[in-house]
Fold this sequence. Notes:
Blueprint: H1 7-17, H2 24-58, H3 63-112, H4 122-127
Amino acid sequence: MAAGISASSTLVSLHSVHRVEPAEHQKGLRFATNFGTQVIVAFIGAFLLGYYFVETFVAPESFNAKVIAGAACSFATLLLETLLLVIHEHKLTMIHTRQTKQDKRSRRLVAVRPPVAPSKSEPEKKDD
């Protein structure tokens, strides 16, 4: 290695130099896969929660009650996940709307603002 440079600092600096921000379609795909995985895991987990809750505390012998409780918990979780998705999409829509309004406002201010004459320097002011 070069004098005074360790291998770890070289690797860290190279990693930070070549880091690339994901494109918009990659962000959307990442959100979709994360959200889909979360929904599947929550759906299965909620079913198991309802099933074992009934088995432990309510009716250990009734298979129908366990399955119905598991299905009800899964359905409630599905509704909750749908609500979270709607809230997330609404937030993105609000951000996009606010950004559009700010862009329009800034363009309007630039169009309305009159050109400013360059100010005179101190020697030029004394000559007047």
